[in-house]
Write a structure and sequence with these properties.
- This protein is mainly alpha-helical and 392 residues long.
- It has one domain.
- It is built from 16 helices and no strands.
- The protein has helices at 2-10, 31-63, 65-85, 87-104, 113-125, 139-149, 151-161, 165-172, 177-189, 208-226, 231-262, 268-296, 302-329, 336-359, 363-369, 378-390.
- Helix 3 (65-85) runs antiparallel to helix 6 (139-149), helix 4 packs parallel to helix 13 and helix 11 (231-262) runs antiparallel to helix 12.
Length: 392
């Protein structure tokens, strides 16, 4: 959840965005944010889809397919419909304001029509799909619905895999799994420049390449639910996978930057190196993060409960807050690192304050979480639990 805020804040201050993002948002930039974006983007959404697939399979096993779809309708589809007419226009307005301010120095609350036309023409020339309707960060919910609708087909696939279950379970818990999964991931990354998924994801109409790429992670999560016995192996192999991911990331970044620099003249060998390195890096980090989470974060705690309940709201609202703070800081002469720190801090604090005081007890909390909550801050719950334990 916090990685959403870190990633989307860092994107406003990267110094050399990929060719699919043909503009800068700030004149104050730093190469370090290019690395932050590449590192987090490489595993964050894949890991989310693995988790989403696991939870979808868990709900189907507990409630059946019909009740699962009823749950998805209330907890995903309805919030998505509301967000499309509330959150999306505000986030889009803020994003355009940031771009116009960076490109033309515009500082008016009213968008200038001539500037918008000029910007649209520049983006069209750069190959940006300006005429395709976009859903920005809400694309995740669309894909979640699409993949959920395919679960009956996945159940047929699972039946076909039943004769190989023992062998598959052993492979998933072995050190070779990340190699095989990484190579499969490399195949799904082949359509993307530099082996990074920055193309076509946020469009309303699902594009085949990102659909296949993220779908592989979702249905792997479904498979993982069926083979939960491998969790012990994930915990055991977490340190080795973390080291492997740390070694692979600079190699993947180097190959990706070479491909970006070469442009249309890039050789197939460089592209192959980029997608293989990115695919292996993604899966080693997913296995590492999953193993560490199972080892250190499996126990119930007020912090975990609070973050879980607040996560949907933070996911929805944080782009609006980030764009507002970035826009406010644009005219100020300040190093990118300090601006980034202010953006992350303000967006994080405002996201959780708004959830705590405005959302959790309201109809919005019911819409997002299925019921209203009146939970205290996590540190207050911990303090109360400590007093209860030491009370005579």
């Amino acid at each position: 959840m916090v990685l959403w805020i870190v990633l989307h804040s860092a994107m406003f201050y990267w110094s050399a965005p990929p060719p699919t993002v043909p503009f800068l948002f700030e004149r104050h930039t730093a190469y370090g944010f290019d690395l932050v974006v590449s590192f987090i983007h490489g595993f964050r959404m894949p890991a989310f889809f693995v988790l989403s697939g696991f939870l979808a399979a868990l709900l189907v096993a507990q409630r059946g397919l019909a009740r699962f779809y009823h749950h998805r309708g209330r907890r995903v589809f309805l919030p998505l419909v509301v967000a499309l007419v509330t959150i999306l226009p505000l986030a889009g307005y803020g994003f355009v304001q940031v771009i116009l301010s960076a490109r033309f120095g515009a500082r008016s609350w009213v968008l200038d029509r001539e500037q918008l036309i000029t910007l649209a023409n520049e983006l069209t020339v750069a190959g940006f799909p300006i005429r395709e309707p976009a859903v920005d960060h809400l694309w995740f919910l669309f894909y979640l619905i699409y993949f959920s609708l395919l679960l009956p087909l996945w159940r047929l696939v699972e039946r076909g895999l039943e004769p190989f279950e023992a062998r598959l379970r052993g492979w998933l818990g072995s050190g070779l799994a990340v190699v095989g999964l990484g190579l499969i991931c490399a195949v799904t990354l082949w359509p993307f420049r530099g082996g990074q998924v920055f193309e076509g994801v946020v469009l309303l109409k699902p594009q085949p390449a990102p659909f296949v790429y993220y779908g592989a992670f979702f249905f792997f999560g479904c498979l993982l639910h069926r083979h939960r016995e491998v969790f012990a192996a994930l915990v055991r192999l977490a340190p080795e996978n973390a080291v492997a991911g740390g070694l692979l990331f600079p190699l993947a970044q180097y190959a990706t930057e070479i491909e970006y620099a070469a442009g249309a003249a890039v050789s197939p060998a460089v592209h192959l190196a980029a997608v293989v390195a990115q695919g292996l890096c993604t899966w080693t980090l997913i296995y590492a993060m999953t193993g560490f989470a199972l080892r250190y974060c499996a126990a119930e705690s007020p912090w975990a409960l609070y973050l879980c309940r607040a996560s949907f709201w933070v996911y929805l609202v944080h782009p609006i807050l980030i764009c507002g703070v970035v826009y406010g800081l644009q005219p100020i002469e300040l190093h990118a690192v300090f601006k980034f720190g202010v953006v992350v801090a303000v967006a994080t604090i405002a996201s959780f304050l708004s959830y705590h005081y405005l959302v959790q007890r309201s109809w919005i909390g019911t819409l997002l979480n299925g019921q209203r909550f009146n939970q205290a801050w996590p540190w207050q719950d911990l303090r109360a639990a400590t007093r209860k334990r030491v009370a005579p």
